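User: I'm putting together notes for a lab meeting next week and I want to include a structural view of one of the chains we've been expressing. I don't have a solved structure, so I'd like a prediction I can at least talk through. The sequence is below, exactly as it appears in our construct file.
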Amino acid sequence: MGSYMDGVKEQISVHGLQQFPEKSRGRSSPSRDLVCPNMSPSAETPSTADRVRPADVRVVAGLGDSVTAAIGANATNILELPTEYRQFSWSIGGYGNLSDVITLPNIFKIFNPNLVGFAKRSTVSYRPASLEDAGLNLAITGANTFLLPTQVRLLIDTLKSLPGVNFEDDWKVVTIFIGSNDVCDYCKNKTLFSPDSFIHNVTVSLDLLKKELPRSIINVVQLLDVGRLRQVNDKSFGCILQRFFCSCVVKPKENSSELLEVLHQNKQFQERLEHLIQRSGRYEGKTDFAVVLQPFLKNIEPATDQNGHIDYSFFTPDCFHLTIKGHEQMATGLWNNMLQPEGEKYQLKTFSEEVKLLCPSEDHPYIYTKTPESTSAASCVLRGSRLVHTLFLLAVTLCVSI
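Assistant: Thanks for the context. Below is the predicted structure for the 402-residue chain, given as structure tokens.
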């Protein structure tokens, strides 16, 4: 966090307050109305994560870094960059309703107006955020992944005493997006910000959630390719800030060994996350808990205009963080991924891509998770393979004895 604020302060002191009217908030939404065939909750509160309808969700929360804190999302100059516009955050902002801004909570509100946990107001990055303002947006600007377990601990403790929340019975959706700062800082400490360290801290955090947070679905949003940030530079004073808080990606020369190394590490972060969540089986077996990797950002390119040039209306004055337009795209991508099964989850091509909000399908009106049935099927296959192996050894033993 220090490097970010240091960069902002230095730019203000050297260049004064720079205006960026072309980067101010703009509206970009192909669909602000969402009317679905069946928007009602389940007849009874579901007991398993694979049968949770959007209307069954009572609590939302967001963990991570400055992207979830929505730093600078409505800023039009450098001086406003330290403001965290949490109420507009893609995963946890609750300003107004869907006609005002597309966020995950505002989508959920259409299904359940009694939703709780969303952020209501702005905060300042270097000051503690109150529960009344930030809600359950516990993201910290500048956070590296080693801070994620602390955020998880705070979330669990807060939920246990949050007025109006039934900790044991209410269904919760928690969205986690973190790791970009680790990539940005990789060259400063290749052990602390390594893929091993990243995956260790994510594992500790998810283990804690599995152990202590009942009736919850955890969205883990896949990292993007941070290297594509290098394309975003309009030569403005604000873009110089990239060099302060993502120096390991921005400063190396094109095709240099330093750049290739950090890009390789970025890829390792993505692959290790996929293995942990989709292939390790670590978070299966508990029926009221699910962890789902949402890949909509995995290969995304920066927003472009009709001429193929970078569209800076999607970027804050620091040329790194997203304006409300970018947050709306992320919210749409996340929501749509939640309604798509593993293997069929859509990946956005660019931030400026026109995407419509999906409705839950009539044959599967639930949020997609790895179902107990799929886990049971995998276990059955595993038992079957072990049986075949055992019979083979028995046959060999009999042949030898004969």
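A couple of points you could mention at the meeting. The beta strands are 57-64, 83-84, 123-124, 171-177, 216-221, 289-294. Residues 372-401 form the longest helix (30 residues).

User: Perfect, that's what I needed.
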